[in-house]
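queue> holo job accepted (zinc ion)
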Amino acid sequence: MPERKKSKKIKSTPKATARPSAKKKVTIAGQEVQPGEFKEIIINIARLPSRTQIDTPIYVYRAPEDGPTLALTAGMHGDEINGMEIVRRILDGGYNRVKRGSVVCMPIINMYGFLNYSREVPDGKDINRSFPGSKTGSLAARVAYHMTHDIIPFIDYGVDFHTGGASRTNYPQVRCVMQDAVNAKLAEAFHAPFTIDSPFRPNSLRLTASKKGKHIIVYEGGESIRFDQQAIEVGVQGTLRLMKHLGMIDDAPIPKKENKIIWSSSWARASTAGLFQPLVSSGDLIQKDQLVGTLTDPFGGFKEDIHSPAMGYVVGLNNNPVVNAGDALLHIGIDNFCKIGNSGEE
Ligand SMILES: [Zn+2]
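queue> job finished
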């Protein structure tokens, strides 16, 4: 049977009264969105071996007044549920219905991984290492291709929501290239507890968008396949602050914590295989050589203390007690204060 033609189905709510002053043309995935309109655009990427079509919905709201277009994307890694919930709460709370500009919400980029509780698509490839993608390539490359051609050209800014992977929790943090003044401003406006200076990863969404002059920051919070209410709440509130910074809304929540900029990081690793029990929590400020956890074997044969290699903040913490030699246990973020307080340590 010939493959069914890839199609874009469109559902839309009735348009609100458009203001004649709004002249900017807003199109997403080839579909024009009118002022005051909320539109659901369903992109068909491919189908399962069972012939089940895999559709990915995108929700676009265009305000009556002109302004920037902001993309909120999640589920690039299909098991990273917190980002999906952040985008869902933004839709559910009507926060996407901004005063000026357009908001493009894509709650699940990787529908395959979502169904499969997995980071990757079924062939084991990572979409965020497959950009800019290919129309006829692997599944990961095809999903990336749709992002590159249906979303990126039509937006100005974006937040791509992620969580820690492989049983590791990330304390709420924005990752961006701090040397890029626009991105640094976006991160500052978002005001997560931590902003981590992170170079572009090859073949990532961030890099592909940057090459097209679009500014996307990454938000990381919590752990895969687990809701983290703090990470979700920080993600929603940070997005509202970003919208205010971009002039899309007039009010946003005041941040409760300081935004610390992390310039470098260090890892505490398991010296040997065993069972890991942390003695610190995600987000804690720890000192160099501080006792941060223990490693034991299951038989009472040994117990080893783990000391921090640096002064810094616990920005990532392993939650899987069973570890092998060399496994990452703590990700320690180092800001300027920690550098001064811990001279010589990088
Ligand atoms: Zn991710």
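queue> The CA atoms of residues 87 and 107 lie 6 Å apart.
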